[in-house]
Structure formats: C-alpha cells, structure tokens
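# nightly structure sweep
# worker-07 picked up a monomer target from the shared queue
# config: single-sequence mode, recycle default, output format = structure tokens
# input follows
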Amino acid sequence: MQQAVKKGGKPRVVIDARMVGPGGHGIGLYVLQLAEGLARLELPYEPFYLVHSSCPSDSLLRRLPHRVTELKFLEPAELVGLPGEIRKAGASLYHATSFSSLIRYPCRYVQTVHDLNHLHFGSPLHKFYYRTLLLRSLRKAFAVYSVSDCAAMELRSWLLDHGVDRKVGVAPNAIDLFPSGDDAGVLRHFGLRDGKYFYALANSKPHKNLAMLERAYAAALAKDADLPPLVLSVAGESSARVIRTGPLAPEVLGALLRHATAAFSPSLYEGFGRPPVEAALAGTVPVASSIAVHHEVLEGVKEAVLLEPKNQEAWTAQFVAFSTFSGRVSEESKNWIRQRWSVDALAGNMDRAYRSALGL
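# output follows
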C-alpha cells in the first residue's frame, strides 16, 4: 500500500465523483451533496474529487480541488485504470461512493453501498459482480457505509451470509428542495393545472413498479372519468390522461413536484427512496409503497400514505380518493425532514469516517 501523499501538510481524501454528469444520477446527487457539506467544514484533510470529463463546467465539483479523467463510471476499464487515477490524484484515503469495486486499491479506502438492488432485480452478470468483486472489496475496506438504517441492515445481513462479519455504518442521503423556476410556464407547457394532476417521479426500472401504477390509474379512470391526469417522469408516448415527460431539468422536476395533487412512489425496493421525501419537503403529499425503508424515511411525515406495493386495488382506490384532494404537507413534517435528512448530517457522518481512517 502506497505511502500517504500530503499537500500543504494535509492528507488528501480522493472521492469518486465520476458518475456526476449532465444527466441525473442518484449516486451523483449523493456525491454533490457530500461535497457541498464538506465545503462548509474546517477540515484537517483535503477533499479531492475524481470527475469524468463530461462533468458540467458549472458543477460545484469543478470549483473544488479535482482531477479530470476519461475513465467512465462502471466501465470494465476501471479495474485496470482506476488505481492509477487514484495514485495520480495523490490519495491518502479513497472513498468508493458506490458498488464500483476494484481488485486492488492503492491506498486505504472506505466504501458506500447504497442498496443491493442488483441482487434482487439485476442480470446474472450484476449478481456475479456483487458476489465476487463487491464482496471482496467490502471485506477489505477500512469502513463500509450505506444510506439508511434499512439498507445498512440488509447489507450487513448479506455480508454475514457470505462469512463477512463487519459493521455497516449509516451516512444517510440528504434531501433538498429542487431549484425554483418558471413554475407557471412548466404547467402551461404540459397542459396542467395547479393541484390538478398526479405525479410519479421515477425511472423505468422494474423495481419502480410503474406498470402496476398505470394499471391502477386505468382502473381508477373507469370508476371516475374526471380523474386528474397522471404525469410520469419517464420517456414514452403520452395520451390525454397519461403524460410521459422523459428526463427533465431539476427546476422543471421541482415545479411538477410542488404543484401536484399527490406524488406516487410504488417501488418494490429502495435503498433510501428519495422521491416521496422530496415530494413531502416540497409540500406535496406522498403516496408510497409500504416497504420498510419508506416507513423509515417518512416516519415523521404524518400526511404520508403508505400502500402495499402489489395491491393494485389499494392504489386504484387512492387515486379515486384523491380526485378532489387539496391537502398539503405541514411545516412540522417538513421540519422533521430538514432536521433528519440534511447535507450537514451527511457531511458530518463521512467526516468522522475519514478522520478515523486517516488516524486524525
């Protein structure tokens, strides 16, 4: 293992930020919020970010100490090329911010695994990767973290099942408001009225369970032809009642989230589950699946509605019940989110991990 490289008397913590690009990425947002929080602290080490050349020029990471690489996030070439990039960045400590794993690391490292989604819904290749490279990486890491109590418990249980007995810490996601913009213009563009549509912020992956949600909505329309339209944040053909937007800029997502009647998140599985918490912070009542992690992250949101994710009839009934709904999330619930899922809490948790790993 190489000798710690120091600059200005400080050890350097190199943080993998290669997934931060022009499109949205949950892990990328996690890294951006971590960077924002660390930038507010007086630190005995230097946070340093490994970014891909596609990282936008106006990104926060471009204004912080960083190294640009052409090595893409999760491409096979990282197994050979990433150790060299970490060395060139002058790492005393490396933070692997995802399940991206190496056979050998050139310095001490900590690793954050956000969920085990690919074990449940991934391909045979994904599962092989988890059971070989990821398992080996987690066994040798100085510290292992996840983003919620539920995800940490699942990860620890999986490790134990494979003969690895080690603690999994929790450095939860941070939840911020989406940036504001021309909300009225966004609604006009999609032909929507304030408080008169349902919104589902999700991608098209199977575990997001959007096919069930569409069936439930169709059944609700059969019961109530005047039901508000359903807006889905996925690509595809739209109809008069189901509007598919495809990927959108953050300010457009924020406008759609803020002005919806309710926000629907029927996921079968999540490591954290950002969208219903983001909806609640924006004031929109979340209707979410009753999976364990949603109980955790929405525990203090008294307005949240939780439904069994495979009970299509329950979701149909909720659409009908909310056809004329105008309720909003209380300040009490929003304050609970601000206090629990903050940028400062995320940075504070990882700061303690870095100090421990560096012996500071």
